[in-house]
Amino acid sequence: MKKYSCLADQVHTLGDYLIRPVQNEEINxxxxxxxxxxxxxxxxxxINKSMQIDYFKRKIWPQYxxxxxxxxxxxxxxxxxxxxxxGLVYINWDNLSAEVSFLLCTERMSKHELYSKxxxxxxxxxxxxxxxxxxxxYLTSETYVFRKKHIEILxxxxxxxxxxxxxxxxxxxxxxxxxxxxxxxxxxxx
Length: 190
Hints:
alpha+beta, Aminopeptidase, globular
């Protein structure tokens, strides 16, 4: 198993949820999910297999060896079934912050109750990892305004809106803003 050298524990669990570093055999499925849900991601074109392999080879796998990686990508399992991935990106080791990244398999994304439970569980796990493993001070998130349920879950998990970015996405001749959220880990640990 590929391991992050900065993590004492490679696997974290909460009930029947488990997160661990992304592995080679998962990257094609991640690519498929990303392509199926491109409209909610900061991704402007479809990713083919060779692009995905090259990206992980150049940008992701080298991060596993760093004491202070720029990002930590984790696979999400529920009842031993691979259901999504997420992690901490844009890690800033000077101010001890990171942005939360999260994507579920397309089928689970479309089912509000599953999506809500999965995302809440992931946020609990990622906050634990961010505080106990990495000693981060706060987490951030950037979400397109039309993702109302995603925003609601974030805010129920102690992420507070603190700003917006205008016109971050153009889709079907419309422009959409992004909402910025922040969670202070030294105060909010729920």
